[in-house]
Design brief:
130 residues; alpha+beta; Outer Surface Protein A, domain 3; 3-stranded antiparallel beta sheet; two-stranded antiparallel ribbon; 4 helices
Length: 130
């Protein structure tokens, strides 16, 4: 399925989406457009930014779960992200300054999932420069 159709299908999944958040900049910006991609090495230069609405829950967890991430800005309260001990250790390194590639144990797959779940944003400006 083409990407626009994939997004349209996800919009219909719950049928309750009432708003979208978007970051945009004018076409007079000195930065060229550069889509966030996870299938090449550029992801290592992305700087992760944790939204202030994301919280880590550490109590009353199911077996094998070290923490749960929740974005309090989401209207659906069942949108949670379970972390095992290794993923939690990696997420705890996020400081809004270091690139993903500098984090011990980092993996594109984990960060892509966090990004898709609206639990991190990324500054991809460094990837544009090369």
């Amino acid at each position: 399925m083409p990407e626009p159709e994939q997004f349209a299908a996800l919009e219909l999944f719950r049928g309750t989406m009432t708003r979208h958040n978007v970051i945009a900049y004018g076409n007079d910006s000195p930065l060229p457009t550069h889509p966030v991609r996870w299938d090449d090495e550029d992801w290592k230069s992305y700087v992760p930014i944790r939204p202030t609405t994301v919280t880590m829950v550490e109590d009353r967890l199911p077996p094998g779960v070290a923490a749960v991430l929740i974005n309090r800005a989401h209207t659906d309260r069942d949108l949670v992200f379970f972390l095992d001990a290794e993923a939690r250790r990696i997420v705890e390194q996020l400081d809004d300054e270091r690139p993903l590639g500098d984090l011990d144990g980092s993996s594109a797959q984990l960060f892509q999932r966090l990004w898709w779940h609206d639990l991190i944003m990324v500054d991809a400006a460094a990837a544009i420069s090369h």
